[in-house]
Structures
1.
Amino acid sequence: MEELILELKKQIIEALNLEDITPDDIDTNAPLFVEGLGLDSIDALELIVLMEKNYGIKLEDPGKSKEIFKSVATMAEYIQKHRTK
Amino acid sequence: MAVYIQAAAQISVQNPLCDDWLDNPISYDVPFQRSLEADYKRFLDPVASRRMGKILKRAIATSMTVVEDTGIKDPDAIIVGTGLGCLETTEKFLMAMLEEGEEFLQPTNFINSTHNTISSHIAVHLKCTGYNSTYVHLGVSFESALLDAFMQFQLGRISSALVGGFDEMIPNYFKVLDKVGFWEGKMAGETAVTFMLADNPGKNPMACISEVILMHNPTPERIENAIRETSSRLGISPQDWITPPSVKPLFGESFTNHAYEVYAAAVKMQRGMLPDNVLLINNYRDSETSLIFLTKC
Amino acid sequence: MEKVYVTGYGIISALGAGTPATLESLHRRKSGIGPLRWLESMHSHLPCAEIPFSTDELRRMAGVPEEEMTTRTSLMGIIALGEALEMAGIRGKNSLNPVLISGTTVGGMENTEKYFLKMLTPDKTYDDYILSHDCGVCTQMIADHYGGFSMLSTLSTACSSAANALIMGSDMIRTGRTTIAVVGGSECLSKFHLNGFNTLKILDKDPCRPFDDTRAGLNLGEGAAYLVLESEASVKARGVKPLCLVAGYGNACDAYHQTASSPEGDGAVLSMTKALKEAGLTPGDIDYVNAHGTGTPNNDESEGKALMRVFGADSVPPVSSTKSYTGHTTSAAGGVESVISILAMLNDFLPVNLNYKNPMEMLSFRPVTDEKPPRPIRHVMTNSFGFGGNDTTCIFSKI
């Protein structure tokens, strides 16, 4: 799990182009959206691409993805359960 | 009616956000030179700029500079001219689609590929809900934006306008245009120039815009007539207009590089380095022509 | 302020080429949305509203020789412009020197996406297509097909491009820069923007259902439409009977987010209010609103709330989105929907909002389901909103 979380943080930084932010700066349990990193709806779409491309997880409805994208921890949990690659 | 250029700022192959080029021009001997970047951290925090390509950062930096210079924080209009828009992100999306297929494409690259993303970014950044538009007409894209702003002043709808010309050039696009002989031996470059225009002079106006005219496939006679008519309306003899030597070789070729001509003329007029009446003529590939009449404030 | 008249218009969309075909489809409630026919894409499961003609057919219809480099966007523009010039009686009368202001965003991307990789190789066969890539070239191709245009410009404010072209053209008449301005836009479907919209997850897999509670996104369309605008002096001098009046228009920026509309539709309220003010009309004067109504959850809620704010929750006039017929013609939408609004006004009918069944709870009004207007249509409003919050509203009035 620790490994997956670190990998995921790196992927998020790359996908969202978060220059100057390191994996250590991202609190695993902190909210990704609005507070915390302050991400928005476009970032959510980027995370959907990330999930599909890297883990083979298809998330069609951006609305329903909110729970999954709550924090890095919730994302990692979902990935562990549903990954196909 | 006169429209005052209250401030102007540029990012280019010359030193950014200053007038260094006037005394210490940097010269290049290359076919294609990208702009020297400014320190964007002064204007944008990294999270806010995470989705911005170079052209957007330049647009925000030049816009913030003219806002700071004039104190006009909420211009009534934001109007942008760009020949090719956000070429770098457009290419990213296009190449990913062509090389990797129609899956896993990144939304950010699409969103930032539309030409109006520049003016809307400036609007979101300055929280300006006023008039907002974007012109994309070849080598007179910037002048189209300027003409629109000029008309909004004429119609009394606005008292201030932020007007910019922006283009970026990327190696692949440069290369293909080079293959068709587009550059004609001139150095390819990029453009980022923002002006703050107002219906009042402000503290230290640079120059006045007295008229903007665009023409398609004009004959020399039509151009002459337009100059004569405009001169008589402005009460200036047609012979009194001078056209200064072009600064385009200093800044490089770009769809909107005529914005540098206006910028340079305004800088020089403010310093008394040019006579009172300046006429800038742009002729893009013998099809689109613009006339900009600048006068001393 | 100087009056601006409409003396001609032309249109091509998934409903066919020309106003008679458009009018018939609207009356018969026949949508142009269907499976992809011409564009090659792996997203063929997404319904689109393509023009029912191949690019070769369009080339023949437009009369553009086979050897001439062109774009689908230009061909569509040439056809729509031809009808508009014809209707206004100015086709071939080049001494009138009109200006052409056209809106597009995709421009020549359909060629670039086909040939760009080849252009990057030493092979020179496809290089010239780079000169048809940018938006301005499409406007030149459309104008130069007929000749006589004294000035051209190209607008690109995403999905409000053509509506802003109408503003630019009207303002050129109002400032005495021209007596005739032809305005509108043209945009063909491209793999580029089909994929782009797909990444935003706003394309419905079924035909779109604007203002329906179950709406799940938009369908992309393609189209071109132009309007001939003319000053009062020019109308008199030519002795023509104008068709209607450009009563007013408003442009504002939502300045909220790159793609999302503000929840309460602030930019939309501003553009509608500005347009009403300039037209010298009160909200109660508007007899029909052709909404932007893309069918995305975000747009219809935000625009719906804006309509309630402008008109009052209990007095929103008949509203429909004709994107349920034409798909979302993106940059051309402002032109296509201006022509449809004018057709509705001049023929006194309300275009029915297709695929509507379930009311949206947060809205006080329901879209048009009956063609018969409750009162004669004298003033119509049309909204065009673009990414980045580029909101524009146009109002046309009967003479």
Note: Chain A has a mean pLDDT of 89.
2.
Amino acid sequence: MLKVDNINVFYGPIHTLRDISIEVGAGEIVALIGANGAGKTTTLRTISGLLRSKTGSITFMGQDISHTPPHKLVSRGIAHVPEGRHIFLQMTVQENLEMGAYTDAAYTKEGLEDVYRRFPRLMHRKNQIAGTLSGGEQQMLAIGRALMSRPKLMMLDEPSMGLSPILVQQVFDIIKEMHAAGTTILLVEQNAEMALEIADRAYVLESGVIKLSGAGSELAQSDEIKKAYLGG
Amino acid sequence: MTFISNLINGISLGSVYAIIALGYTMVYGIAKMLNFAHGDVIMVGAYMAFCAMSYLSLPPIAAILLAMAVCTVLGIVIEALAYKPLRKASSLAVLITAIGVSYLLQNIALLIWGSAPKSFNSVVGFDSISLFDGRLIITSETVVTVIACIVIMLGLTLFTKKTKIGKGMRAVSEDKDAAELMGINVNVTISVTFAIGSALAAIAGVLLCSAYPTLMPTTGSMPGIKAFTAAVFGGIGSIPGAMLGGILLGLIEIFSKAYISTALSDAIVFAVLIVVLLVRPTGILGKKIAEKV
């Protein structure tokens, strides 16, 4: 479904991604794990077109999207829940969700029903300014907003960041639910243990290079991973 | 009675500032830049209306619509040619470019229309309103200006709250990257903002010159700077703020002229701005700026 082939990304003079190639098959959950600053977020931002690679190509469902502007990717079927959520803090909960269906406004009504069914708490707060929500609610809103575009591929960047263990479990349950409903998932996480638990496959990034890749369960057993990321 | 008369004049002048300030504030909110050429778009709008009425003998409404259309196109063209290439440049480069565009417009106007002031015929057709046996006269320009200002303010508020493009504009003004990830075309949104701001500038130009009928290539610059002050005063980026800032500025200016000194009125206006910014750096209705790391 998504094929990232040999990309190199620079922030000014800093070479942040080196020859990264990853693949996500339709219906998979693929995790991208690694320490802070390894290049996980940069990878997602490059796929979304917010950053550009100097080399290689990115193809989505057989079409080259390396030069497609980010706002055109939504209607192609890619949704990106950015790191730090980036909801519109001064708009209401419902307005945030409406923005999610910006390219498919006819779906707004149905989409709102769907999101409110999944996240009843958002329905109770639909006219509230998003900035007044708790961290967990904001994450639900960010995910709900992405669902409003009915994505084929959902990219989530650190969805568990800053959340309590119960909320983290909830977020992972939602991811499993979306996946069961047929959405392909590309998940960036620092919480390697939980990410590997639900991932079909995973890539381990370190200083902008892919160090390891393989089935999620396999990586979870690997000594190197245990030592570096799983605290054992 | 003089007091009430001054009050009404202040609100009228303030309404013009408010309409201009809306253009500044919207462009700042969306593109995070100060479009210092905005004042000169007012002047172009006024010249367009002047030409339409004097040379083409068009009725005032048609002249205003023509001026709005020309300014809308002008706004979009300025943005596309001068500002868009600088989207990733430092804000200083953009600011200097805006000042450059301002002088460019003034000098083009000088080439076309010369430096001699044109006498602008009011676009308002009906008579002044006389109250209390003629002791209080409200000019027809004042009535039209205040009504126009209220209509524009309500219209813009509804537009940004209720329409899809308007909500998209608010999304862009808050977080460009996130808006882009929602599928909102940020460049188009910025163009639309310039178009709306410039159309409003045309209206402001016509109203301003109807009340103060001397039209010169520099006509727009002082009202432009005052309206910018009004936008900062009310809280730049905020639509009600621009409105409030504009009206307050108009009142301060007229009352200073009436009760303190005509020569000092501008100095007083800017002194008040400095005091407000010392007490409330984000302006009266300004949002608290949360610095993100």
Note: The mean pLDDT of chain B is 90.
